[in-house]
Amino acid sequence: MSEKTEKKKTEAKQEVQQETKQEMKQGAVIYMGPEIPGVVSVGMVFSRGLPPQMERTLKELPAVGKLLVPVGEAVDARKKLKNKMSAISICYKRTAEYAAEKGMGK
């Protein structure tokens, strides 16, 4: 990959991480993604920050950040998951692939 492409990817990862941190400051967030054994379960709520294993996963796979939504937006996020072209649905699929690649789940 070119240096320019790598820089864009790094910037995108940092942007997602910042968005996730902003949501955490606003209150509790709920994980709307697939289970990642040893890291997070479906529907897990975080109200006091993310545990270290979730922070590591977020750095490795920024798409996980899009699956952490404010609790008050959970119903809307669930509806968006049904649309295969929505950002949250694409992130869900990528996270499921990540878990499978790591031998962590289905």
Helix and strand layout, with pairings?
Layout: H1 3-26, E1 29-31, E2 45-46, H2 52-60, E3 68-70, H3 74-81, H4 87-101
Antiparallel strand pairs: 1-2, 1-3
Considering DSSP H and I runs of 4 or more, what fraction of the residues is helical? 40-55%
Number of helices: 4
String of helices and strands? HEEHEHH
Query: Nearest-angstrom radius of gyration?
Result: 14 Å
Low-confidence stretches: none
Strand content: 5-15%
Structural class: mainly alpha
For the record, give the distance between the C-alpha atoms at the N and C termini, rounded to a whole number.
30 Å
Whole-number average pLDDT? 85
The main sheet orders its strands as 2-1-3
Give a quick account of the main beta sheet: strands, pairing sense, barrel closure: 3 strands, antiparallel
Count of DSSP E strands? 3
Shape: globular
Please explain how this structure is put together:
The protein has about 110 residues and is mostly helical. The protein has helices spanning about 5-25, 50-60, 75-80, 85-100, and strands at about 30, 45, 70. The chain has a three-stranded antiparallel sheet with strand order 2-1-3. The longest helix is centred in the N-terminal third of the chain and has 24 residues, at about 5-25. It is globular, with a radius of gyration of 14 Å.
Structural features:
106 residues; mainly alpha; three-stranded antiparallel β-sheet; 3 strands; globular
Structure at a glance:
With 106 residues, the chain is mainly alpha-helical. It has four helices and three strands; from the N terminus they run αββαβαα.
